[in-house]
Amino acid sequence: MYVKGSNIKASREVNSRLASLLLTRMLPLLSNGSGSESSADVRTSKVRAHWILLLMKILQPGLQTAPQKPALCPLLITTSQTACSCETLVSSLVREQNRGTVEAMVRRQRPRRLACLALMAVLLADLLALSDTLAVMSVDLGSESMKVAIVKPGVPMEIVLNKESRRKTPVTVTLKENERFFGDSAASMAIKNPKATLRYFQHLLGKQENNPHVALYRARFPEHELGFDPQRQTVYFQISPQLQFSPEEVLSMLLNYSRSLAEDFAEQPIKDAVITVPAFFNQAERRAVLQAARMAGLKVLQLINDNTATALSYGVFRRKDINTTAQNIMFYDMGSGSTVCTIVTYQTVKTKDAGLQPQLQIRGVGFDRTLGGLEMELRLREHLAGLFNEQRKGQGTKDVRENPRAMAKLLREANRLKTVLSANADHMAQIEGLMDDVDFKAKVTRAEFEELCADLFERVPRPVQQALQSAQMNLDEIEQVILVGGATRVPKVQEVLLKAVGKEELGKNINADEAAAMGAVYQAAALSKAFKVKPFVVRDAVIYPILVEFTREVEEEPGVRSLKHNKRVLFSRMGPYPQRKVITFNRYSHDFNFHINYGDLGFLGPEDLRVFGSQNLTTVKLKGVGESFKKYPDYESKGIKAHFNLDESGVLSLDRVESVFETLVEDSPEEESTLTKLGNTISSLFGGGSTPDTKENGTDTVQEEEEGPAEGSKDEPGEQAELKEEAEARAEDTSPPPPSEPKGDAAPEGEKATEKDSGEKPEAQPSEKGEVGSEGVPPAPEEGKKQKPARKQKMVEEIGVELVVLDLPDLPEDELAHSAQKLQDLTLRDLEKQEREKAANSLEAFIFETQDKLYQSEYQEVSTEEQREDISGRLSATSTWLEDEGFGATTVMLKEKLAELKKLCQGLFFRVEERKKWPERLSALDNLLNHSSMFLKGARLIPEMDQIFTEVEMTTLEKVINETWAWKNATVAEQAKLPATEKPVLLSKDIEAKMMALDREVQYLLNKAKFAKPRPRPKDKNGTRAEPPLNASTSDQGEKVIPPPGQTEDAKPVSEPEKETRSESADSEPLELGGPGAESEQKEQPTGQKRTLKNDEL
Questions:
Q1: Closest by alpha carbon to 429, among 395, 392, 391, 387?
Q2: What is the DSSP-derived secondary structure letter of residue 1029?
Q3: What is the SS3 assignment for 604-625?
Q4: What is the 3-state secondary structure (H, E, C) of 61-74?
Q5: Which member of 50, 295, 480, 786 has the greatest number of CB atoms within 10 A?
Q6: Which GO terms describe its biological process (predicted)?
Q7: Quick one: 341 exposed, middle or buried, by C-beta within 10 A (0-12, 13-18, 19+)?
Q8: What sign results for the dihedral spanned by CA atoms 117, 118, 123, 127?
Q9: Mean pLDDT rounded to a whole number for the chain
């Protein structure tokens, strides 16, 4: 970037222009990185302040010399002293830029420094661009409502408010032909259009058409028409012949809406998210959620179980209470659609990276998929429908259950009634115009409600028993039971649960609605690279075990071969995840298949097994096994290794399948020099031979490369496959991970290091069998070559894999892209509609506001009657057009109408605004003129020997002051002669320009005084020092300097000690940022300008 050439002056000019252009582009970026409103600048003020100060520090070394005009260097020091905010700093930078001094300032820099500055500025621009996308979000997807939380710089863990300023948003979507509604707006549409309003659609995720939950959904919400997808054997919502959406697409719409809420709240784009899912979700259901997030364009950092998120939130806010003693806490979460009971163990563990840190471990989980508040509301709705039919019995009317709108009203009333009965013994249910304009009113007691849900309350203890059984614990080991979820507020639920757990009381010291969202957003911040949080180790548990099944031929008797079915558990029940595992198939030399299925699900009841769906996950077909064996015929096979990964989201994947071969390779012997032979002989005589430890160290690394004890498995006919856990980076594991498998001819790093050491040391090497000779026996003299030990060479061949999904096929990539595009088109249509509504509202609001202003005195004062009549007529005509034709008008037409009206009223509004600004601007100008005059008068009173300002500088300031006074008096007088209805000649922008010019001259002199060095005092003719100042200390006045022998006092002025001068200059120098250029700046100071007097002697 540095321009070379013979013309140094031209080179400097080119580099100056380059740096000037770069600074001109950087300053707007620093002042407002995204181009948004001023409120958006505050969101990353700390980040921007850091990079601004860093950029200014880079600029400072070349700007330290005294400038002819105010530059960036004094601005930096002023900012450092006062510790002003980032907004003040940015405005100061922009003001300096407007003065036109940036280019002149940069031209004084050296060309080499300018090239480095340009490179650094480009890097800073990239970092500043990244700082605008630091926020992450979490979505707690409940059955009835969702909570969204964000973390961004300066805002730690905050719940997002929706458009209605509520912290909880209904999980409801209304889909029409030309518009969509979400949240509270969609919930209100459920009464008007129940068929197009979708709720509780998460219950259909990952379910095939024959699943009992699909039939249950049809029974609960008969107004929805569910179509059948023959390709995936799933269902979709048939809103109309033209509108049909799968449950994944509906969920994607809701996730996109939640992201829009988070972005509006954070005032910046967000892509990274952590989404909560029920702990009982299987692989198909989890993949469905991930596909929905892909359609919405979200990057899912993790699918976290809602019970784990709740436990994490509880532990984060009680970090100080966690110690090395294990604490077992039970969380009982009854929401709207399901119930989950979780046993969590909290304790501190020693981690490899962060030392002693708190950890939560999921020990046991029990659940009920259909036990929740929704089922209670449906029971109440059925009860209210029966009461309404009894009231109208004999009137020949149809059943209220056949009217979808009436049933939607009853369900809403049942929800309200359940909430009220939790605090009251009875309540009156009433609905106006339930059906056929007939009002409904009935009294319901808590006893009736508990009788309706008696069988549901009997199911409350079952998840507790399942959790204890899976954790292999009893109730005595549980320290506390904490309630989570909205349905736990029902008194009968608490009564039954308290009796089941046998505790004195139930814990209610957690936010039952927001705990999962807060825990999930903490995990999102921990997973994001933009934030650093205190470590909290999370060990989740596998609910459904996963195993591998395969069939092989065995020879039980000579000549008799049969097929044998084998099962190997990959991930056991309640085992921790995430983790990776490797399974090795030892006795296959041709292509074969194996199956990945769920393990023992005996802990599920018959009905739960039906809801669970297919127990077969995937069939894996391997291709290329036989070819790999033909490729390496001379190598020993170490088996076919399949690498599995159960990631943080609980989703299983097959990373790769490899065929591993191994052989022994002997390196060619190398001749030893005479000096080496002599050294080996002497070393052997003094006991310097090889030791058994050398052999052990040399072979341990090779053994670690093996995936498993393959040789041992061959001896056992029943064991044909083996598992090995890969080194997973768990917080509690302090052992280093095993080395990865090198491919090709490369040897492991440990082997290379061992060979290097053995080559440098003249020691006897052990034999291949591991036998080590006696220490004191030297090698035979006739051996002139050094024999290196044989090493193992590993070859890895990738095996082709074909996966056949058995539980629920994923959407093909083309269909996934089509769904994403369809949803994006709907989003664009909604944005266009919002833009049109915004334009129409703006036009209507402008008409009403302007018509009202025409009758205000301040507007009548600056306008004539004809002008007001013209404006009023145009406003009335536009209002009539908006009422008659505005419904079909486009956004462009509405904006054009608004622009025409604003142009018509521009002169009127300008005159009013200018008159409002005059008093404040003129008062500020008068104050500045008075202070500037006082400053000039004081500057002229400085004695000549102490004067730091030149006559030209003071004359220039005096000229600016006089010109400003003259301009102000003349313009005010001219404005007084003009009528109020004419365009004013006294403009606020001109006043501000005059103030800026005057302030620039004053600030220049102030900055010069700040950096000026006092001149040394000359001695008088009698050889005595000048009179000390009046404010000097008595100790300074009493000092007497005795010259050395042989030297008169007239020989040389006496200067103060250097140490004192340094301390005084350090006290008087302003605070500067430390950096690599600080020392060079000090060295560039001329030595002749060292201070020898104190500040108060000026």
A1: 387
A2: P
A3: CCHHHHHHHCCCEEEEEEEECH
A4: HHHCCCCCCCCHHH
A5: 295
A6: endoplasmic reticulum unfolded protein response; negative regulation of hypoxia-induced intrinsic apoptotic signaling pathway
A7: buried
A8: positive
A9: 76
Q: What is the DSSP letter of 1096?
A: G
C-alpha angle 1073-1076-1077 in degrees, rounded to nearest 5:
75
Whether 750 and 666 have beta carbons less than 8 Å apart is answered as no
Contact in structure between 859 and 871 (CB atoms under 8 Å): no
Residue 721's DSSP bridge partners are 585
Q: What's the number of CA atoms in the CB half-sphere (13 Å) around residue 1050? A: 4
Does residue 115 contact residue 56 with C-beta atoms inside 8 Å? no
Nearest by Cα to 787 from 696, 672, 704:
672
Structure-token pair, residue 403: 């009217």
Neighbours of 599 (CB within 10 A): 18
Three-state helix/strand/coil letters over 397-410: CCCHHHCHHHHHHH
State how far the Cα of 449 lies from the Cα of 455, in Å rounded to an integer: 12
72: how many CB neighbours lie within 10 A of its CB?
22
pLDDT-based confidence at 1012, cuts 50/70/90?
Answer: confident
Q: What are phi and psi of 334, to 5 degrees?
A: -115, 110
User: How many angstroms separate the CA atoms of 833 and 827, rounded?
Assistant: 10
CA distances from 489 to 299, 333, 493, 512, 1052 (A): 35, 11, 7, 9, 93
H/E run at residue 1026: none
- Rg, Å, the chain Cα set: 41
Q: Which phi and psi angles does 32 have, rounded to 5°?
A: -160, 95
Q: Assess contact for 857 and 912: CB atoms under 8 A.
A: no
Q: Which residues pair with 633 in a beta bridge?
A: none
Distance between CA atoms of 884 and 900, rounded to whole angstroms?
Answer: 19
Distance CA 95, CA 71 (A): 11
Q: For residue 769, is pLDDT > 60?
A: no
Is the link from the previous residue into 111 a cis peptide, with omega within 30 of 0? no
CA-based torsion, 70, 76, 80, 86: positive or negative: positive
- Torsion angle (degrees, nearest 10) of CA 232, 235, 240, 245: -70
- Partners of residue 569 on adjacent β-strands: 547
- Residues β-bridged to residue 146: 141, 169
Query: CA 592 to CA 622: how far, in whole Å?
Result: 6
Report whether 597 contacts 561 (CB < 8 A): no
- Cα–Cα distance measured from residue 11 to residue 4, given in angstroms and rounded to the nearest whole number: 6
Helix (H, G, I), strand (E, B) or coil at 560: strand
* Type and span of the H or E element at 613: none
d(CA 391, CA 429): 14
Rounded CA separation 377/368 (Å): 17
**From 491-505, 555-569, 749-763, 770-784, the region with the lowest mean pLDDT:** 749-763
CA distance readout (Å), 169 to 145, 367, 519, 529: 5, 25, 18, 29
Strand-pair category, 785-786 with 670-671: antiparallel
Which helix (H) or strand (E) covers residue 266, if one does?
helix 247-266
DSSP string, 496-556: HHHHHHT-S--B--S-TTTHHHHHHHHHHHHHSTT------EEEEE-SS-EEEEEEEEEEE
Tell which wins on pLDDT, 407 or 1017.
407
Amino acid 987 reads L
Q: Which residues pair with 47 in a beta bridge?
A: none
Which of the listed ranges 63-77, 88-102, 539-553, 1062-1076 does the model predict with the highest average pLDDT?
Answer: 539-553
- Predicted local confidence at residue 885, as pLDDT: 86
Q: Is the distance from CB of 380 to CB of 452 less than 8 angstroms? A: yes
Q: Quick one: how many helices (H) and strands (E) in the chain? A: 34, 32
* 265 burial type by CB count under 10 A (0-12 exposed, 13-18 middle, 19+ buried): buried
Q: What is the pTM of this model?
A: 0.69
Q: Which of 254, 265, 333 is nearest to 514 (CA)?
A: 333
In this prediction, residues 341-353 reach a mean pLDDT of: 92
